[in-house]
Write a structure and sequence with these properties.
Keywords: Lyase. This is 2-Methylisocitrate lyase, PEP mutase family. One of its GO terms (molecular function) is lyase activity. The protein is of the alpha/beta class. Helices cover 51% and strands 11% of the residues. It has one domain: Phosphoenolpyruvate-binding domains (TIM Barrel), CATH 3.20.20.60. It contains eleven helices and eight strands. An eight-stranded parallel beta sheet has the order 1-8-7-6-5-4-3-2. Helix 9 links the parallel strand 6 and strand 7. The longest helix has 19 residues. It starts with a helix and ends with a helix.
Length: 255
């Protein structure tokens, strides 16, 4: 427990606006060890690559027991803090989410992504409901004794078209403020790539902002200048790896 607490404190300290921690997302113990060897300061899973590696689709299709067992093995394989992508917490009701969070903490997590989209449905949870879900998450974290990092994710920019992002920013800022009051430690805005909007978001919230490094997103150094505190890579590493593997397999089979 003491080691997990120290790792959690270390992970919190890595989130600095203007000096973002880079999380090159992994999916199993082997990939985690490779990323650690590459010089990472922390390890993060991504729900999509973890599910895909086990033959499942994303959106909580991989059984929670399997996802937790995989994460437990990742924690045991590395010396770094490890954060888990828990999607929507495998349930809608706050008490269900709290149980999921507790199990993730027991598996060794020192942080987790927790999103506001309706998993398996459409749109986002109402802010009032999502606040209750984050409050339940924060309560579970407090009860555990591990100061885990709650990275509250909004999918508003993934749901909106790029030309709608300026308007969506208003809703995102409102959610950031509400999530912070509910106990979140970070704000994750995947899909946002416009420099001006990223800078506005970083200035509008005291929470460390997490941006995902997709093709349309500025490079890490520019994100740092805009005030970003965390840069993750989501499914990109896994997709690039599978493309390489398929090409090498084709060459071997046909050669």
């Amino acid at each position: 427990m003491s080691d997990q607490i120290e790792r959690a404190r270390t992970f919190h300290a890595l989130h600095v606006k203007g000096d973002p921690v880079v999380l090159y997302n992994v999916w199993d113990p082997g990939s985690a060890k490779i990323v650690e060897k590459a010089g990472a300061r922390a390890i993060a899973t991504g729900s999509w690559p973890v599910a895909a590696a086990f033959g499942f689709a994303d959106a909580e299709k991989i059984p929670l027991d399997l996802a937790l067992d995989n994460f437990r093995r990742i924690v045991a394989a590395v010396e770094l803090p490890a954060t888990m992508d828990l999607e929507g917490g495998y349930g809608v009701e706050p008490q269900v989410v709290a149980k999921t969070i507790t199990r993730a903490l027991e598996a060794g997590a020192v942080g987790f992504n927790f999103e506001d989209q309706i998993v398996g449905g459409s749109g986002l949870h109402d802010i009032a409901l999502q606040v209750k879900r984050i409050e339940a998450t924060a309560a579970a974290v407090k009860a555990s004794g591990v100061p885990a990092f709650i990275n509250a994710r909004t999918d508003i920019f993934l749901k909106a078209k790029p030309d709608e992002h300026s308007e969506a920013l208003l809703d995102a800022v409102e959610r950031a403020h509400a999530y912070e009051k509910a106990g979140a430690h970070g704000f994750f805005a995947p899909g946002l790539g416009n420099e001006a909007l990223i800078e506005k978001l970083c200035k509008a919230t005291a929470l460390p902002v997490n941006i995902i490094a997709l093709a349309h997103v500025p490079p890490r150094q520019r994100l740092a200048e805009l005030g970003v505190a965390r840069v993750s890579h989501g499914p990109v590493p896994y997709r690039q790896m599978t493309e390489w593997l398929e090409e090498k397999a084709r060459q071997a089979i046909s050669g």
